[in-house]
Write a structure and sequence with these properties.
The chain is mainly α. Helix content is 74%, strand content 2%. It has helices at 2-9, 22-45, 51-76, 87-122, 126-151, 159-162, 175-195, 198-202, 208-219, 223-233, and strands at 154-155, 171-172. Strands 1-2 form a two-stranded antiparallel sheet. The longest helix has 36 residues, at 87-122. It is elongated. It is a multi-pass membrane protein.
């Protein structure tokens, strides 16, 4: 059996690949940083804890089980060539991937809402606040819609993690089209969120140096736009 397995692993002369260690490293470091960041934010907010803080906490609450699932998936062989895994491992990995997608959509949505609620706390101009309130409504609605769609993207739901074997029957949406639609909406929404406060920040009565520093600080969130573009490419 070991000899047969080794022969399978070197199928077509390709080297045996194993990058199962990458996911735990990324999940552990980024997750640890997120926990520390949110904990510090909540501690500093104190009695001023508001909706933007609550959204940060909510994002973390949904991100933690996502990270745990990533660790479990790596233990099952996520990161190895599929022909080296047993059918049971594949079923479980695909199932856990589906669950992480659900948690991911909610966590991303809560993160966007955290920025928007922060704007309501910081900027008093009524015209801007009306725009922000509209964006909050759209952000909450889009998060709900995308989360529901990814949850039931196949019917029956079990077909999500059994469709690969060709032994089960079911129907699925065009997942590729869904991913593209979400990516485009996500990038546009992020651009609007991070561009929205810049005119207000430029108008602040302070030195040019301080204004540049504040605009740069708020623009750090633009990193998520860059990451979204990489996500689309992948």
């Amino acid at each position: 059996m070991p000899a047969a397995q080794n022969a399978t692993q070197s199928m077509c002369g390709a080297p045996v690949r194993d990058i199962t260690h990458i996911t735990p490293i990324i999940a552990g470091t980024s997750g640890g940083a997120a926990i520390i960041g949110v904990a510090v934010r909540v501690w500093m907010s104190g009695s001023d804890f508001w909706l933007d803080d609550a959204m940060c906490v909510a994002a973390l609450v949904f991100a933690i089980p996502m990270a745990i699932l990533e660790f479990l998936m790596s233990g099952l062989g996520f990161g190895k060539d599929i022909w080296t895994l047993t059918p049971g491992q594949i079923y479980r990995i695909v199932q856990f991937t589906w669950l992480t997608e659900i948690f991911w959509f909610v966590a991303i949505g809560c993160t966007k809402l955290a920025f928007l609620f922060l704007y309501l706390r910081v900027f008093p101009r009524q015209k801007l606040r009306k725009v922000v309130n509209v964006l909050i409504g759209l952000g909450a609605l889009s998060t709900l819609i995308f989360t529901v769609i990814v949850t039931v993207n196949c019917l029956p739901i079990t077909y999500i993690w059994t469709s690969w074997d060709g032994l089960h029957k079911g129907k699925c949406i065009n997942l590729n089209a869904f991913v593209w639609a979400h990516a485009i909406i996500d990038i546009v929404f992020d651009c609007i969120i991070f561009a929205l406060p810049i005119p207000e920040l430029i108008k602040l009565k302070m030195s040019l140096k301080k204004r540049i520093m504040i605009v740069a600080m708020f623009s750090v969130g633009g990193v998520s736009v860059f990451l979204s573009l990489l996500h689309v490419k992948s």
